[in-house]
Please model this.
Amino acid sequence: MLWIHPLFQFMTAILSLYVLSLGFVRFKANHFSFKSNTAFPWQEHVKYGKFVHIFWMSGLVLGLYVVGSTWGQNGITATHYWVGQSMMLCIGGGYATGWFMDNNKQERRYLPIAHAIFNTMAVFLALIQMGTGFMVIREFLL
Ligand code: HEM
Ligand code: HEM
Model:
């Protein structure tokens, strides 16, 4: 049980890098008129983006549950706990903007940037979570 959350979140962090790489194709085309042979795979980006967001949220709930039920109190992982909470703001903003753009397709300038900032921040924080997560493993699991 203790190992499900770290493994699950590790795989999600890798998937989020893939989704970011798909988004980067769009970013270059939207803001730098970058001519590329690669088209933005809209449906694939949205599908895997949704997976990442759902996995992050359910992973957070699982992490909280495991820590609470095993050690009786949440927050003992300190930085890992707080970075995890702050990721939720980025996920909320990233999902809402992505959902809106997917359901109201038109040319846009600023909303994609807000979406890119929220989600890139979330990916960055997930990579920090890898580092702090391995420290939690060393401290509490091994
Ligand atoms: C880890 C998750 C995600 C990352 C890292 C990510 C990243 C990005 C990036 C960098 C762009 C280009 C923005 C720009 O041109 O400035 C983009 C575009 C887009 N994303 Fe995401 N995204 C994620 C999840 C999602 C989700 C869950 C949805 C839908 C529910 C979504 C829908 C879209 C759409 C529709 C666009 C095209 C917007 C446009 O050019 O009009 N994304 N994404
Ligand atoms: C590779 C990445 C990650 C690793 C290795 C990792 C590792 C861990 C470990 C070992 C625990 C203790 C409970 C358990 O063993 O199940 C934990 C708890 C937790 N994790 Fe992660 N984690 C990672 C990513 C994330 C991410 C991305 C989030 C947020 C979306 C997150 C949020 C949490 C929370 C909120 C707790 C409970 C902390 C507490 O109550 O003190 N983790 N994590």
Observations:
- Residues 4-30+41-141 form one domain.
- Helices lie at 4-32, 42-71, 79-103, 110-141.
- The chain has one domain: 4-30+41-141.
